[in-house]
Design a protein that fits this description.
With 285 residues, this protein is α/β, with parallel strands linked by helices. It is built from nine helices and eleven strands. Helix 5 (102-107) links the parallel strand 3 and strand 4 (113-117). Helix 1 (3-15) crosses helix 2, helix 1 (3-15) packs across helix 3 (29-43) and helix 1 packs across helix 4 (57-84). The longest helix has 28 residues, at 57-84. The model has no long low-confidence stretch (mean pLDDT 88).
Length: 285
């Protein structure tokens, strides 16, 4: 399959419009129609209905493959360009909000690094496709277990730290006086829905709550402290919120884990920063 045709198909489906895809891709509408017709001819299957513009069952199946295929192509191009280009002195580091830790701050050089804040789900693709030189992503895991990350491209994944967890509660919450909490204690609680910043456990989110579409941790903590929903955070973040009550999580045995994502051929500057981010932490730190 021609990747140009595949990109056109994905864009038409995303916008539900041939004319919209033409504007975004810089083609004429006739060219977009020709791309779709050529792809359907290659696969010998109708991929789109025209009114409305929607994928057929065959189109839905192709769409499942298209995203990973196109990302792999972008990753391959980025990897070759990194290897062939003269080593730049700048590093673009993709970071999910809760991956910003004291360790990261101490490892950053005074100049030469751009931090790009992204939702956790977007960090692997940003590194794979070459938009960022390195990535720090976080999530929940059992102690010493790796995160479950999407297989977007060959990336080296290295553990960069684990931290205790705590639940941030409003000061007047009935469980705010507990020395520790189990997730079972919160089975009926309302959790803030913050996919770009928080790590509220979806397995126990049984009641609808406010959705926060942002990466500002201060705003997220303020919402939790004001009673709009609970949030699970690294203990250091919950305790430094300045509002509400942080109660440590005792069960199940989970930690907040941060991992460093490195492409197969990092630039010298990126490799040097990666070494700083994964260097052993001295005892007592």
């Amino acid at each position: 399959m021609d990747p140009h045709l595949l990109r056109t198909f994905v864009t038409v489906v995303r916008l539900s419009s041939f004319s919209g895809a033409a504007r975004e891709l810089g083609y004429t509408q006739s060219a977009v129609s020709q791309h779709i017709a050529a792809l359907e001819g290659d696969l010998r299957a109708e991929l789109l209905t025209r009114r409305p513009v929607e994928p057929t069952p065959a189109g839905v199946r192709l769409l499942e493959h298209a995203g990973p295929l196109l990302l792999r192509l972008d990753a391959a191009r980025a990897d070759v360009l990194r290897l062939a280009a003269a080593p730049p002195g700048q590093v673009v580091l993709a970071v999910s909000p809760l991956a910003v830790s004291p360790r990261l701050l101490s490892a950053l050089p005074a100049t030469g690094v751009t931090l790009r804040m992204l939702p956790p789900a977007e960090v692997p693709a940003a590194v794979a496709a070459g938009g960022c030189d390195l990535g720090l992503v976080d999530g929940l895991a059992a102690p010493s277990d790796p995160l479950r990350l999407p297989d977007v491209a060959p990336l080296t994944v290295t553990g960069a730290g684990e931290e205790e967890l705590a639940v941030l509660l409003p000061a007047g919450h009935p469980l705010a006086g507990r020395p520790a909490l189990r997730l079972d204690d919160l089975a009926d609680a309302r959790w803030l829905d913050a996919p770009q910043a928080g790590i509220a456990p979806a397995a126990v989110r049984t009641r609808p709550s406010l959705r926060y579409e942002g990466t500002d941790l201060r705003a997220l903590c303020a919402l939790a402290a004001a009673g709009h929903g609970l949030v699970l955070l690294p203990r250091r973040v919950a305790e430094s919120a300045g509002a509400g009550v942080a109660v440590p999580l005792s069960a199940p045995r989970l930690v907040h884990r941060t991992e460093l994502l490195t492409p197969t051929s990092p630039t010298p500057a990126a490799a040097a920063l990666a070494a700083r981010l994964t260097a052993p932490v001295p005892a007592g730190d």
